[in-house]
Amino acid sequence: MSNTVSGKSGTWRNWAGNVTARPVREVTPASVDELSAAVRKAAEDGLTVKAVGTGHSFTSAAATDGVLIRPQLLTGIRKIDRAAMTVTVEAGTPLKRLNMALAREGLSLTNMGDIMEQTVSGATSTGTHGTGRDSASIAAQITGLELVTADGSVLSCSENENPEIFASARVGIGALGIVTAITFAVEPVFLLTAREEPMTFDKVTADFEELFTENEHFEFYWFPHTGNCNTKRNNRSAGPEKPVGPIRGWIEDEFLSNGAFQVANLLGRAVPAAIPTIAGLSSRALSARTYTDIPYKVFTSPRRVRFVEMEYAVPREALVETLRELKSMVDSSTLRVSFPVEVRTAPADDITLSTASGRESAYVAVHMFRGTPYQAYFTAAERIFTAHEGRPHWGKVHTRDAEYFSKVYPRFGEFTALRDRLDPDRRFANDYLRRVLGS
């Protein structure tokens, strides 16, 4: 059901294994009423409350030593409204189940991230996104949500109902309450043609504006220690469907991207000096391919190799300079980096603490294989990102605090004022929120 692990001692762990927590008790509510009651009971006992999803955050956003709410019974589709073209789902529904259910109904989200293991509320609350010239994060596709607040009351939020809460709660980092249901805008299912091809780092950076402008969804991966990138362009297509064949799909998506990549990373962890050679081989392992399929089969792919990740959103116009600085930093250092750097984009949106709030953004994600020391690399990368007023993904490793966020988010005060109003006693607080929002 979930990638999170509960040990016999009641220890909760995230997917990457870098965060653990020991709650006093766990509650698995079967209804919104039961959830409200659990929040009220926690208040009586003087305990804090956190809801967890599948633990795909690398930060301790969901960690608590109080009451841990597990959402696996709050799953499924509540309603499909074909006139309004919306779908309302329970907050614990995995994105994978939502995507498959929508496809059966001939519907789809407009855009999505590159994995779909997360719950809908965990993904949206941390600002999970894919890449898009015109279409934004998953949270930006929300048209309504239901929120249980600190006193146990249930609020419906949309542009018309509680609009000031709606503006913030779509990416609420768990600070404003517990999301129990989400309404997404959907559209008739469509086809995307994906064109994947190798390209040099110099060419991608020189032609970035053009590649961005000419494609609905452009992203690329740069392999540190090499001048090589893999690019991916996804554009809407009239068809026909031409999925990746099962054998080629297995070789490229399972064997090369997961199996052989895992072996390469294990080798690199054991013999760091071999990493540049491995990177050169990895960056040339995937050849060009073109395929056409329904959105979730193009946007998402399995990620079985465990890693730790930092990702920052920088203003889109600062992307190329940021990347060149990152490359020269790696080239001139003794760092050995076996994971590619992932680059995506998003249009500006109107969500208070969305990483793309009020500005066109480009995302740069750095990864390290699980169990490899990542601090030196992430610290050096973060120095570059923050020099460009970068905004870190709320669910990925970073060292920023409330003072920094108040400078890079023009509407930061609007969010914290709303938190003061909805959760004055900090029922939903934890160490992470104290750091990023202030106490």
What percent of the residues sit in helical stretches (DSSP H or I)?
A: 25-40%
Strand order of the largest sheet: 17-14-16-15-19-20-18-21
Based on CA atoms alone, the radius of gyration comes out at 21 Å
Strand content: 15-25%
Largest sheet: 8 strands, antiparallel
Categorize the overall geometry: globular
Assembly state (oligomeric): single chain
Identify low-pLDDT runs: 1-8
Mean pLDDT across all residues, rounded?
94
End-to-end distance, in Å?
34 Å
Please report the total strand number as a whole number: 21
Structural class of the helix and strand makeup? alpha+beta
Number of helices: 14
Report on this structure.
- By secondary structure, the chain is an alpha+beta fold.
- It has helices at residues 32-44, 95-104, 120-125, 163-169, 201-206, 208-214, 246-270, 275-285, 295-299, 319-331, 375-387, 402-408, 412-422, 431-437; strands at 5-6, 12-13, 20-21, 25-27, 49-51, 67-69, 77-81, 86-90, 107-108, 142-148, 154-158, 178-185, 187-188, 191-200, 217-222, 228-237, 289-293, 307-315, 341-346, 361-369, 391-392.
- An eight-stranded antiparallel β-sheet has the order 17-14-16-15-19-20-18-21, with helices on both faces. Strands 7-8-12-10-11 form a five-stranded antiparallel β-sheet.
- β15 and β16 (228-237) form a beta hairpin.
- The longest helix has 25 residues, at 246-270.
- The model is unreliable at 1-8 (pLDDT under 50).
